Amino acid sequence: MFFAYLLAFVPVFLLVLLLLGYAAPRRYQVKVMRTLPAPPERVWTYLADPERFPHWFPYVSACTHSGGPARGVGQRRRVVLDLEGKPGQREEEASRWDEPRVLELQHLWETHEGRRVPWDYARSEFRLAPAEGGTSMTGVLWFSGRGMMGRIFALLTIRKRHERDFRLALAHLEKRLREESYPS
Q1: Residue range 26-53: mean pLDDT, rounded
Q2: Whole-angstrom Cα distance, residue 59 to residue 47?
Q3: Which of 12, 36, 39, 52 has the fewest CB atoms inside 10 Å of its own CB, making it the most exposed?
């Protein structure tokens, strides 16, 4: 009887997997907004200076300028990640720099524990606008699942994890802005 159930379960499982892979979107967007207690110029410094990223992105253990201009389009950053004890790295390049309103970063490549991540074509954008009591910040991340399994994992888990991480980062940034006088 067990084998009969197994024989019925395996084809159904494979069919569901194929349907998920076919129906899963090719591109995902995660969008998070928050009002921060500082003027846009002060918030901008946390975005524009690579060495400030670890101060507010909780899973970034280091971020350094790795090429291109120190400020502006073409700035490259090497990001060292620590995702719950799992090491990773990413290379980013500024593709839009409208100080102090918009910073867009292309994620050129990313690895976790030495392996490529299951998504491609990632791009993050940070938009700042003056708001009552500070700055309205919108963080947007676009990415595509890599291959059928990447699309399935993006649909089921990756998208939610990115949204959680983005919300946490903005909460950390708000905390830093309240605690630190840098940059004045």
Answers
A1: 91
A2: 15
A3: 12
DSSP 8-state symbol, 37:
S
pLDDT band at 13 (very low <50, low <70, confident <90, very high): low
Q: What is the pLDDT of residue 18?
A: 57
Tokens 């910040």 -> residue: 137
The torsion region of residue 42 among left (phi > 0), alpha (psi -120 to 50) and beta comes to alpha
19 CB-near residues (< 8 Å, 6+ apart):
none
Buried residues in 45-72 as b, exposed as e (16+ CB within 10 A): ebbbbbebbbbbbebbbebeeeeeeeee
Helices (H) and strands (E) in the chain, counts: 4, 8
Beta strands in the chain, from DSSP E residues, in sequence order = 28-36, 60-67, 76-83, 86-98, 102-112, 115-116, 119-131, 134-145
**Which amino acid is located at 146 in the chain?**
R
How much is the pLDDT for 73?
A: 97
pLDDT digits (tens, 9 = 90+) for 98-118: 999 999 999 999 898 988 877
Read off the tokens for 4: 């009969």
| Structural domains of the chain ordered from first start | 2-179 (3.30.530.20)
